[in-house]
Structures are given as structure tokens and as C-alpha cells.
Amino acid sequence: MADTHALATLVQALKGLPGVGIKSAQRMAFQLLQNDRATARQLAAALQNAVDNVRHCACCHTFTEAELCDTCLDDARDRTQLCVVETPADQSAIERTDTYRGLYFVLMGKLSPLDGIGPHDIGLSKLKQRVGDGWVREVILATNFTAEGEATAHVISEMIRQQGLQVTRLARGVPAGSELEYVDLGTIAHALVDRR
Amino acid sequence: MADTHALATLVQALKGLPGVGIKSAQRMAFQLLQNDRATARQLAAALQNAVDNVRHCACCHTFTEAELCDTCLDDARDRTQLCVVETPADQSAIERTDTYRGLYFVLMGKLSPLDGIGPHDIGLSKLKQRVGDGWVREVILATNFTAEGEATAHVISEMIRQQGLQVTRLARGVPAGSELEYVDLGTIAHALVDRR
pTM for the complete prediction? Predict the structure, then answer.
């Protein structure tokens, strides 16, 4: 974009963000340097701080700054239920529904053989150990309803069943507020099969 | 996304980037912390370095780390031509054509009354002073062909003409490689009027 090394380095670094191409990176760099150096400084500090301080909860694997996350430390939560999700964002979505009071296990990924992500990368041996703590009775699989999420749920479900625990999966069906005419056929088929 | 303060701060800071919403910011933060802490560190360092070292060329106003940018310091450039562009990215696009050997003046913005950006914010008084250096004979207006870019070009052209210098504007016309059938009518009309 211009002849300065600092600027070229910044554009390259911004291009490293997921979903950001060269044009967006240039626009971001221009915007930050021209109108918003305070934001740039804040972002630099926030990045450094997060990289230095954010680690994984020793119990559920989610992001936390302490040894254990607030959810795992909360005595009011039901220790017999363990909900398995792919990411902290998914965990947060379930929390916002205010309908679940159990604990979580965050995989921090999903099985994805094509990307070379196997059972070890998503901590399945750690999950196996976690569910054997003597408290957990039901494992709720809340991985995404994508091909990879379903495969991950299948592998985990096989593993947990061998340990003699109850395994459930989030219900598939027609989303709230939707009209059947506009719902895809696969979803309607699942809703029919899982009718209650 | 999770209960850590460092993470929430990072998501907020990423959301400050142009074109990044809350979902993208969460995805970026997750990606950086889970798989790519090295990139996060590089980005933090690049931001800090750019904010500390990048400033404006005293002559043409573009981004540079020195008092004057490389283009303004280049003795081989034609000092009688001055090309006025909105941003360093536009300057870079013209440079890549390898057809212009004059100097530049980078407005670092455009007139935009609705956003409160007036002549002072894009350095028009500095431009006035710049073109009066005794060398410049022709000012080439290469602001964008948007409503705001055209208005900016108009204001500058009025200003420069009063100083008795030649003012030209990039030609409007049909883009190279395009078929008339698919070119918008305004462009064809301009190409007709400006035919040569």
C-alpha cells in the first residue's frame, strides 16, 4: 500500500486474521493509522494480554484466566450432567438460553480427518477421564449439526456408552418461528422421525 | 464468548476493526487463541510498531516512517506533475500501472460533509501551498469516481484553477476488457461524451 516497512508488516499481520484478505487488511491498516490510533493501541494491548493470560480450564477445557473457569467452580451447577460442545461460543449460546444448569466440556474443535484433526487434538482421552469422575450420569452431545460435528458426536457417543453412561443428543427439528414451506427437507424429515 | 475479561476485551477490540462484527470478532479471537498465538503476538507487535513509527510525509502526506517518503525523495520523478489521490492504496494502484512518473499528493480522505469531513480535514490548504512550489504545472485529479470523490475533485479543481495551473481529471470510460452490453449506461454515456 505504501513504501513503509511497518505498514507492510501490519497489513501482512492483519491478513493472518480468519476471513481477512489483502484488500480488507489494507483498509483496516489505513483506518487504524489514519483515524484511530487509539483503537490500534487498544487492540495491540488486548492481543498481548489475551495471549499472555488466557489458558484452558483444567476441568472443562474452555478459555479462562484462572486454573478453573467460573462455571466449573460454581457449586450451584448440576454435576450429574455434562454438555459437550465444540467451542466457547457454542457454550455461550447454550448459557444464554438459561435452560441448562449442568457442566460443560469444550472440545475446542471437532474431528476433521481432512485437516488432520484426530481424537487426540480435541482431547477425547481427557473427556473419557472427565466423565469417569463418579458424578456424571448423562452426557449431552451438543456438537454442531454439520458432517464433522455429527461424526464427532458419533465417536464420543460410542466412547461414552462403553463406560455405561447415558448419552443424549440435542434434538433436531424445525427451528422456532419458521414456516414448514421454507424449511429444508432434511430438517423436516428429522423432525418427523424424532416427533414426540 | 466466555467468562474471561481478557477474552472479552480482545473481542471488543477486534470488533473495532472496520467491517468486523461481533461474530467475526469472536471467531477471530477463538482462532488466534486456540490455534495461532504466534500470529496474535505478531499482530500485536506490528500494530504497536506501526502506531509508533508511521507518520505522514511532510511533502505529499502519504504514510512514511521518515520525514519524506521514497517517492518524494526520488530525483528521477517529474516534478511538474502532481497527482492527487484519496488514499495510499489509490497511489499504490497508480504506481503499479507503471505509466506515471510524476509526484503525488495524498488527501488521506475525501470531502464528506455528512461525516463532518471538510476541506481542512483533507489538507486542502496544504495542497494549495504544495502546488505553489514553482515546479508544478499540471495537477491530475485521481480521486474516486464516486459522488464524494467527484465533489472533492470539483472543489480542488476550482481552487487550483485560481492559481493559474493546468488541472486534468482521469478519463472516464469503458473499462478495458469489458463488453458494452454489460457496461452500465452512465459509463457508456461518459465514454461517448469523452470520445477521442
Answer: 0.78
